[in-house]
Amino acid sequence: MIPAAFEYARPTSIDEALQAIADGGDDVKVLAGGQSLIPVMRLRLAAPETVVDLGRVAELRGVRDDGDAIVIGAMTTHHDVMTDPLVQQHAPLIAEATETVADRQVRARGTFGGALVHADPAGDLPAVALALDAEFVIAGLQGRRTVPAADFFVDYLTTAVEEGELLVEVRVPKLAGEWGMRYEKFNRVAQAWSIVAVAAVVRREDGHIAEARIGLTNMGTTPLRATAAEAALAGAEATPEAIAAAARSAAEGTSPSSDLNAQADYREHLAQVLTRRAVTAAAGL
Amino acid sequence: MTAVEDRATAEAPEREVGKARRRKEDARLITGRTTWTDNTVLPGMLHLAVVRSPVAHAKISSIDVSAAQEAPGVIAVLTGRDVADEQGSIPCAWPVTPDMVNPGHPSIAVDEVNHVGEAVAVIVARSKAAAQDAVELVDVDYDLLPAVLDMEEAVAEGAQLTHDHLESNRSFHFVFESGDAGTGQHTDEAFRDAEVVVSRRFVQQRLIPAFMEPRSVVVQPQGDNYTMWSSTQVPHILRIMLAMVTGVPEHKLRVVAPDVGGGFGGKLQVTPEEVISLLVARRLGKPVKWTETRSESLMTAHHGRDQIQYIDIAADREGNVKGLRCRILADMGAYLRLVSPGVPVLGAFMFNGIYKFPAYRFECDGIFTNKTPTDAYRGAGRPEATFAIERIMDELAVELGMDPLELRRRNWIRAEEFPFTSVAGMTYDSGDYETATQKALELLGYDELRAEQRRRRESNDPVQLGIGVSTFTEMCGLAPSRVLGSLSYGAGGWEHASIRMLPTGKVEVVSGATPHGQGHETAWSQLVADRLGVPFEDIEVLHGDTSISPRGLDTYGSRSLVVGGAAVVNAAEKVVAKARRVAAHLLEASEDDLDFSGGKFSVRGTPGAEVSIQEIALATFAAHNFPEGVEPSIDADATFDPENFSFPHGTHLCAMEVDTETGMVKIRKYACVDDVGTIVNPLIVEGQIHGGLAQGIAQALFEEAVYDADGNLTTGTFVDYLVPSAADLPHFDTGNTVHEAPGNPIGAKGVGEAGTIASTPAVVNAALDAVRHLGVRDIRMPLTPERVWRAIHGGGDGGDRATAGTNAYGGAQTETTAGVSTPQSALGGDR
After folding, report:
1. Tell me, what DSSP letter sits at residue B243?
2. What is the helix, strand, coil percentage profile of chain B, to 5?
3. Residue limits of the FAD-binding PCMH-type domain (chain A) (predicted)?
4. I want to staple B131 with a disulfide (CB 3.0 to 4.6 A). Which of B49, B106, B493, B659 is the partner?
């Protein structure tokens, strides 16, 4: 459980961090909270040439109000996200999902941005970011760019963050209207990853579901939107029957894996059940 | 008279036994500021790292260690070939049959490897990091052989062989037949005449003991003497075995088990790494340390359980049981370790449970497979037996249309029938199954839950409710030496203690039972405080060092209090007897006229004439004024060899909610009433029950060591090997009945394994009770949501899991997951 030798840099600003990444050689890993990186390094499944530790980059931490959005710094810990009043007010789904991440110790060190850039499809936050149409602000030596959630998760453990770049913050749009949210997580023990989870964000209008956004955790190599179910729900009556009917298409277009906890067909079944439950709760039924 | 009685009451010291004292050892154990083996640092100490086989079965065609030898900080690299002449074989102390086949177990593989994780070389370096870096530089060529992984395939005609120099994969065939033993009828006759026969195949999945403190060994050579510190349950057994294996004479070897962080049977072993550490220290003349990683621990420390059980039960239509027939395949893994074969054989005497079977037959085949060896794990043979009998009783009840409790009640031993000799030849000492059951039913709120179950059935609720029963007994207090001898075990079952009375009035209690978290120091202090009348705080319990506690047989099988505590009590009685002679001398009275109470000897009828045992200790130290011809010592020792086992029992009830939509099971309520005899410390007993329940429930719901089709351990981390935390377990409603064990001076029966043994079938029976009306009659353990869902919606027992897929490492590929997808494991591995 001793990592292979590596170079170590500990910048104190975003600019210094970008420079350290540029100077770090061919294989640079960025250390945020370390809850995924450190274990794989200790097991020598990863042996980076350089580790750039963002622990002292203060400007990456914290949540702020930016008018039509709240902005969460990439290095804000899970604990700080969960307990933040802006998050609780404008994006309670993030707080609800973050509460289910691993255990207290992990939530004290693990970071919001780290979990998103790691992009484990079994992680809870990617599907939530997808359902909330979050935007990802990425910095490079050449400047900053903003990527919508729909384009951020590229492949298994792969995001739109290119070599030499850094995720600095995530913008979560404030929602207008009568919205409800729910994260339905399914796992075997409290600190485990999701076998499947569903993030539902639902806007109700006149007894109908005006809009539903459904993010799926662990139903493919990236987090996914349940587009067929979303389409079936748009304009549907807010009744248990209508939601149940729509939820039957929740697994359309997914390609879940098989592992010790679940084979693919069972995951597809769970996605339907959990979508029904999440949407029902988010719709206030 | 009233006044006298009042004074007597006021003066009587508070009894320690029965007091819920907090454990005196916990502060140091919980903070870790103590002598864990890995905390040991010796001048000039070298560090070991073990190179392990990544394949399950292969011939070693070559090993190139040259690059590793030249790596920075590396002192030596040793292969199996280098130590072939001195490493001997890891010992097996329990040849359960005269013709048992033991393939021999080198500590470092020489010509072939037989399971993933087997040691093939050891690196010795100046630092742990240097040793670990060099592991990757050892180049081993393997000629792969087919891996034997499935017991039923392993015993079929023409099966591949685990060891190609053996004739088959069978190590032994052990039979107990009540008709032959004279303890009952011939089983075949009982079945021939039976009105009802129910047959089932149960799978006891493989488990990993998963103790908290990883194993660690330090060896210091000093001239031709060696001191070994090891995170072991059994320093005394280890010393004898190391002497026999390595040829280091026993009197030149001292073994110390400092504070040890849990074992659950997993440290009841003589490990390859202990032997390797001693060999390296001897060869280099330098102190060495080896500490395992968690991954090494899960992969290579011995596993437990792993049986396939074919159970037949015979009864008449009224529900009177007529016979029980058990055929067991028990997976030994690749090698026989210390008591591997003895584990299923211990179960042989427990499959009949608490029921009055007229006939009983037990047959067990020990099978070799290319997996990590199995050995003792909490309960060791008895959980397997209890599961089988408590599951088959439920199946029989269903067949007969009877209430499962009514069927049990009809057949169990009644309170007035104790002592009772079972059909397996065991003499159950004491108990009352009816009373324990009544108390448990009240604790659970049985009637209300049954009513709710009916409501949920009638309304077709997606969440169904079930109630499961387990009325169990177990044999504890290992063990009468003569019985162990009759079972061909290689040692006795006695335990030793000595008590040293110090001049300042303090007391040292030396115990041969070495704790690894049980609280011996607290419990032994309570025992001695009562017997000697000295304050609890004035007693220190010493243990775990063969030069401090020279005689002992250590801690396992719920034996410490029952056997080791009994030795402590007997030693204390001897101290009092010796002190009495000194007291008589000092008080100038006849011994017969002395009373001993509250730590003081007083002369009957002479108020004020008294002397405390502490004063006697000082007087003995000085020895100025001592009785003629008496040696100046009131220290004493005692060795206790029980005449019989003790038989704790109890009734465990589980109420289980099953979400039929997802298959998720959730324990709604758990109630148990255990009879463990006299309770010395209620807090420790409660803790043992809670921990035992957690592990028994874990077998039912969470834990399983899964191998893929190539023999890699898929559940190689705690991400995939699910040990539940407090967050995953329900509140436990616990209670006790007390029937003293007649076989020891304390009256205790043993509690270390009760919760584990009893709970597993209660939980599975509860889940089945919830969904049996949906056509489900078995679900394989652990009851993963997927298995429960498949059993409900697809029939069968829930089926195999996808063995090549892991959730660990964020999906990173590892030696144990890379490229292992085969046709048989093609369900997974694509993450």
Report:
1. H
2. 30, 25, 45
3. 1-177
4. B49
Q: Is residue B271 part of a domain?
A: no
B654 pairs with which residues across the strands?
B468, B670
Residue B476 backbone dihedrals phi, psi, to 5 degrees: -125, 180
Strand A63-65 relative to strand A69-73: parallel, antiparallel, unpaired? antiparallel
Query: Which of B577, B611, B640 is the endpoint of a domain?
Result: B640
Strand pairing partners for A91?
Answer: none
Does A39 reach chain B within 8 Å, measured CB to CB? yes
Residue B688 maps to which CATH number?
3.30.365.10
- Taking alpha carbons only, the member of A99, A97, A142, A125 closest to residue A36 is A125
Distance between first and last Cα of chain B: 83
- Domains in chain A, start-ordered, CATH in brackets? 7-56 (3.30.43.10), 58-172 (3.30.465.10), 179-282 (3.30.390.50)
The tokens for B569 are 């009590």
Whether B633 and B654 map to the same domain: the answer is: no
Q: Which domain holds residue B608?
A: 2-33+494-640
How many CB pairs below 8 A link A and B? 101
Inter-chain CB proximity B786 and A189 less than 8 Å: no
Do B751 and B669 contact (CB within 8 A), yes or no?
no
**ipTM, 2 decimals?**
0.97
Residues B533 and B598 in one domain: yes
Does B262 fall in a domain? no
Domain boundary among the residues B640, B673, B702 is at B640
Beta carbons of B187 and B325 less than 8 angstroms apart: yes
- CA–CA distance from B443 to each of A195, B415, B438 (Å)? 35, 21, 9
- Please report residues of B whose CB lies closer than 8 A to that of A4: 133
CB contact under 8 A, A263 and B725: no
Measured between CA atoms, how close is B27 to chain A, in angstroms?
A: 22
- Please indicate, yes or no, if residue B344 is contained in any of the structural domains: no
Tell me which residues of chain B have a C-beta less than 8 Å from any C-beta of chain A: 128-129, 132-133, 136, 293-295, 661-662, 664, 702, 706, 714-715, 719-720, 722, 724-725, 727-728, 784-786, 789-790, 801-803, 805-807, 809-814, 827-828, 830-831
- B568 and B656 part of one domain: no
Helix (H, G, I), strand (E, B) or coil at B90: coil
Note whether B464 and B627 are within 8 A (CB). Answer: no
Chain B contact for A101 (CB, 8 A cutoff): no
For the CA atoms of B234, B239, B245, B246, the dihedral, rounded to the nearest 10 degrees, stands at 140
pLDDT values of chain A reduced to their tens digit, one per residue, 285 residues: 799 999 999 999 999 999 999 999 999 999 999 999 999 999 888 999 999 999 999 999 999 999 999 999 999 999 999 999 999 999 999 999 999 999 999 999 999 999 999 999 999 999 999 999 999 999 999 999 999 999 999 999 999 999 999 999 999 999 988 999 999 999 999 999 999 999 999 999 999 999 999 999 999 999 999 999 999 999 999 999 999 999 999 999 999 999 999 999 999 999 999 999 999 999 999
Angle formed by the axes of helices B566-587 and B520-532, nearest 10°: 30
For residues B471 and B504, state if they share a domain. Answer: no
Residue of chain A whose Cα is closest to the Cα of B812: A45
Structural domains of chain B, count:
2
Q: Are strands B594-597 and B636-640 parallel, antiparallel or unpaired?
A: unpaired
Q: B785 to each of A189, A198, A207, B726, how far by Cα in Å?
A: 11, 17, 35, 19
pTM: 0.95
Q: Which among B430, B612, B462 is positioned nearest to B533, based on CA atoms? A: B612
B782 and B822 in a common domain: yes
State the burial class of residue B492 (Cβ atoms within 10 Å of its Cβ: 0-12, 13-18, 19+): middle
CA distances from A149 to A173, B17, B238 (A): 12, 65, 60
